[in-house]
Write a structure and sequence with these properties.
The chain is of the alpha/beta class and about 375 residues long. It is about 45% helix and about 15% strand. A hairpin with a 5-residue loop joins strand 1 and strand 2. Bound molecules: zinc ion. The site of zinc ion has 4 residues, from strand 5.
Length: about 375
């Protein structure tokens, strides 16, 4: 196997080229869905690339996503490339297909930001927009403090006083819920779920219909970074607790990892709205789906959240500082979600190959 560091890229176009080359050299079929309007920072093309392996009419499949949260995609891309380079897809059982979806949010990926071209958190966008949208009053109450216009010492200290007072009154659990569940009212805010399905969502729906037409049993991995112990995988299974698919996922990856209560700085897992996981589950119904969002830990949750606020301020805040200081802030956001550290990168690729092999073994026995 080549050096895992070679699976990482510094730019979207480079990641895309490495993914496409790996698909071609490992016998996959490549289809690209080019974004109709958005472009990269250099004006370059953005696309979702899909690599497919195995029979098109297979009833069992593994679907792996990278780049739901933009810059986290550099790690997810490396995980997908590592799977191909590991040789695990060379001989698949006749009833099994593997579909690797690269850079589902190519705008965020290319711009090293969390959100889509509309500031939408794609992992909050899979709600029913014809119905009543979820309300998040706690977020709205705190929006100005979470997203201050200025990122100065004074403005941040003032914002922190408001947040601390709110947490003292409502508790850490309510704070986690406020900042994680998603919100549908502040288009420049954090965790904004949007007001309509994003292009990335519509394209995912096309991909599932076109590339997984016969699937009855779907294993699902959505690669992320941020939560969890540094360099370690942190599993978020959204199958109903203790149902057959939850148990199946415990069998693949270990119950102690699936049922852990860590990862949110001592708080319980918040309830999210509009997750891709549930969106894909609906798309393959009445077929079954089992799987997880899998994070690789980078920073303590409070520090990672601070980087998301900086990411947002760089887009919508009152401009201040010179180009160099803004570039340094952007660099900090990048490094928070795909750290440059070689040991971190080698370690997560190693985990990713094992985790993906475990699910292929599990799929064979399903
Ligand atoms: Zn993420």
């Amino acid at each position: 196997m080549p050096d895992p560091l070679d699976f990482f890229a510094e730019q979207y176009a480079e990641a895309r080229a490495k993914f496409q080359l790996a698909v071609a050299q490992t016998g996959g079929q490549l289809v690209s869905y080019v974004h109709p309007t958005a472009t990269g920072p250099d004006g370059g093309t953005l696309a979702i690339d899909v690599g497919s392996f195995g029979a098109a009419d297979a009833p069992k499949a593994l679907l792996v996503l990278s780049g739901t949260h933009g810059g986290e995609g550099y790690t997810g891309s490396a995980a997908q490339i590592a799977l191909m380079r590991s040789g695990a897809l060379a001989i698949l059982p006749a009833d099994t297909r593997v579909v690797l979806l690269h850079a589902i949010n190519p705008y965020g990926f290319a711009h090293w930001t969390r959100t889509t071209e509309h500031n939408v958190d794609l992992n909050r966008n899979f709600v029913d927009f014809s119905g009543r949208l979820p309300r998040n009053d706690a977020y709205l109450e705190l929006h100005d403090a979470i997203c201050p216009a200025d990122w100065s010492e004074a403005a941040r200290a003032d914002a922190q006083r408001r947040i601390d007072a709110w947490i003292a009154q409502h508790g850490q659990q309510a704070w986690m819920q406020a900042i994680m569940m998603g919100q549908y009212d502040e288009p420049t805010g954090l965790n904004y779920g949007g007001r309509a399905p994003e292009w990335s969502r519509a394209t995912l729906e096309t991909v599932v219909a076109r590339h997984l037409p016969a699937v009855k049993k779907l294993a699902f991995i959505d690669w992320h970074t941020g939560l969890g112990q540094p360099g370690q995988p942190f599993f978020l299974c959204f199958n109903p607790h203790r149902d057959a698919n939850w148990e199946r996922v415990c069998g693949w990856w270990g119950r102690e990892r699936i049922e852990t209560t860590e990862g949110y700085g001592g708080a319980k897992r918040p309830s999210y709205s509009g997750l891709i996981f549930h969106g894909v589950q609906r798309l393959v119904a009445p077929g079954e789906m089992a799987g997880a969002v899998i994070e690789f830990g980078t920073l303590p949750v409070a520090e990672a959240y601070e980087q998301l606020r900086i990411d947002r301020w760089l887009k919508f805040g009152r401009p201040s500082g010179d180009d160099a200081s803004r570039a340094a802030l952007r660099r900090g956001v990048r490094d928070a979600f795909t750290p440059p550290d070689a040991a971190w990168r080698r370690g997560v690729v190693d985990h990713a190959v094992t985790i993906q092999r475990q699910v292929l073994d599990g799929l064979a026995a399903w």
